[in-house]
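Subject — a protein and its fold
Fields — amino acid sequence, structure tokens
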Amino acid sequence: MDNSIFTGCMPALMTPCKADRTPDFDALVRKAAELIADGMSAVVYCGSMGDWPLLTDAQRMEGVERLVAAGIPTVVGTGAINSASAVAHAAHAAKVGAQGLMVIPRVLSRGSSVHAQSAHFKAILSAAPELPAVIYNSPYYGFATRADLFFALRKDHPNLIGFKEFGGAADLRYAAENITSADDSVTLMVGVDTNVYHGFVNCGATGAITGIGNALPREVLHLVDLCKKAAAGDAKARVKAMELEEALGVLSSFDEGADLVLYYKYLMVLNGDAEYTLHFYETDALTDSQRNYAESQYRLFKSWYANWNA
């Protein structure tokens, strides 16, 4: 199974809104194409950044179809409130020509049951057996996939080729020690923006899925490149990578909170992407204080980076 789709840096796309707060798929495709032109290897749609719980299945599938038709390498999120919907998204991704799956655990119903999660994962993987897939491990979904379950699944489903780890530093370390270091063909994707250095250098990650990279693609790609060099033993790159990750720290930390989409859409607006101004629910909005903080931190980082990278 070719896992090359999961060896680069890819943004978890947000879904822009029209004035009537419905998805703007034209803007979605435009932004995806811009990010690929900036150097991103692929895109992810719909993870939590894409607001999958707020979209209908038909809307999500339309977004996937539009991205694939535009020639954008696309990894599809399978988050759903039931296994049948998750399976439908996986099968649709395979049908329209997407390149990979991000397999999200079962939520709400029996979410803590290993048996239920195993059946859920198996159903998704079986629906698209030719698509390489990573399990999305996140505390926000209430279930941590451990080594025994991962390898039991992989035994029957060779399209399960790795992990996207969003649980933070300790979970990245667990995945590296107990899962991805067991087999060179198993890949680890850093899934949280605050742990890119740790993931690549200390845990052997081969790729990253980024939120802040939607707004700062070149800077995040620079960080990933430095981390890859540091992981290969480059001492100067190691120092530079740590400096850049520290400078990005506040902006990256938005990735860890409940308002991550609100923050990153606002940073997109600061970049001039007005189509990210609205959210699907009118009541989903940053406070004035949050906006002011985000704006000041964004200005500070941009000023620092221009000086540091001169």
About this structure: The radius of gyration is 18 Å. The longest strand covers residues 160-165. The chain has a mean pLDDT of 96.
